[in-house]
Design brief:
27% strand; 7 helices; 5-stranded mixed β-sheet; 5-stranded parallel β-sheet; disordered N terminus; iron; alpha/beta
Amino acid sequence: MPLDPAQTLTLRVGRREPLCDGIVAFELRATDDRPLPAFDAGAHIDLHLPPARPGEAPRRRSYSLCNPPDERDRYLIAVQHEHAGRGGSAWLHARLQPGDRIDASAPRNLFALQPAPHALLLAGGIGLTPLLAMAETLWAQDRSFTLQVRVRSRARLPFARRLQEAPWAQAVQVLADDEVPAGTEALDRLIAAQPAGTRIWTCGPAGFMAAVRAAATRAGWSADRVVTEHFAAPAPVPTLEPGDRIASGSFEIDWAPSGQRLAVAPHESVAQVLQAAGIAVALSCEQGICGQCCVQHLDGPADHRDLVYGAHEHQVERRFTPCCSRAPAASRLVLAPLGWAPAP
């Protein structure tokens, strides 16, 4: 039976280990030591953190699982201290210690492996985390792969010892910018050298992943051969044309189950308006990169801004992410929970 992503797990911190400058690994176990829900390579969990300030809603932050997926006794995550972030990583670095308990979601996977004759796993810094679980799976299944990790310096390489001692260590390449400068030519050469039918899974800073996609495009690869995992949404590109896709403006939403009509101002998100009206929204990343808050889009011109779903999910499955997606000014959207249908 499929796992309910909304299921809440209470986990105990079994171990905390500094990996390198600014990155700490946390080993999380069930409080009763029972087996944890299974997960596949590329999956993540959402940690439930206290509110940033009194009176605010609790925070949820997503972290990739990087231990072998056949392990059922623990979840392993790595957290980079983001000094310019929203405070989640700072709280975990400062507060979470062995023996502490923390609530989390069951694993969800928006970055799954797919069949390919060869997998090229490209990591930028902390983006290594989901690719570690992929390497473990590919090796266990005797599938062809290469894992290349790009870091600023070897002092910033997380899981260095694990990469050296893994049974698949011969498939690993580590490139440090202070040893081998990064450049588009290197990516072009790397992609040109791949076997026919290779697919890329890449995770890391937005600029790094954009460079990978651009190199694949120059090589004539179709877009579906590059799969990305985002830790943060890229900043929108401004436009001067009123009514363009990313232009903001007031619009209305109808919440179909209750018939409520709500106004969304330019400075508000749909999720904020729904919450203010007493409608529960499962917020996590608040950037359109996890899909946790997804609702059903029944009618109206939707301006999809998430980085999770493609055309099929938007147009056929009618998925809408209220944390970031909007509608054109002066228009109206009709929304409902996923799976909702009007009474006959």
